[in-house]
Amino acid sequence: MRKLTALTLAAFASVAMSPAFAADLTPYPPVYVPDIPPVDYGLGGSFYLRGSIGGDIWTAVNGQYCACVATFNAPGYGLDGGVGVGYETGDGLRADITLDYLHINGLTATTGNTVNLRSGLVMANAYYDFMLDGGASVGGGWGAYVGAGLGAAKNYSEVYTGGGVLQAWGTSLEAAGAVMAGVTYDMGNMVADVGYRGIYMNKVMNQPANIANAYVINNNWINEIRGTLRYRF
User: Fold this and answer.
1) Which of 38, 50, 170, 214 could form an S-S bond across to 84 if both were Cys, CB 3.0 to 4.6 Å?
2) What per-residue string of b and e applies to 190-202 under the rule 16 or more CB within 10 Å gives b?
3) Measured between alpha carbons, how far apart are the two ends of the chain, in Å?
4) pTM exceeds 0.85
5) Does any domain span residue 172?
């Protein structure tokens, strides 16, 4: 009986003393959990530089030369090249300012006259980019875009006879508008695209209109297929 009582007292004593022993143990440091910032699924904007080169087809409805009205039955063909700077927001919207030079020959009238055009074109443009796989507009891979632009063209044009003799020439400053569409491939810092641009100018003419051999060419469309590289920075 005395042994049982002693064992019972010893058990109670060990239970009572266990918090004290636990307090003497070295505590473990708290586990450090770093703060994880929230995930940002948005894409930031960026500036870019661009360069383009392409081929042109120039058509017009009709014209007037030395008081004679003529229609045009054969287009002119040529090349264009240009540079620009722009900004994209990262959510599909993009805008840039471009400077292009157009070199087109051979727009032919029913009278046999041909017209050559050299044009410096400044345009302010806006676009909407979208990925063909449904991803973000600057997420890499294949995409497409549509756009429109407004600007001005400084034109130098020449009129030749059917025999190739220069008859008239002159310059004029004209308003211009454009529509664009194309396919892109996003490589990160570089974006390549192949696209169409249609440029409309109400007139191509020599100025002033009352000079000898005055002419005006109405409702001009310049259709371009261009390759462009954009570099983001």
Assistant:
1) 50
2) ebebebebebebe
3) 91
4) no
5) yes
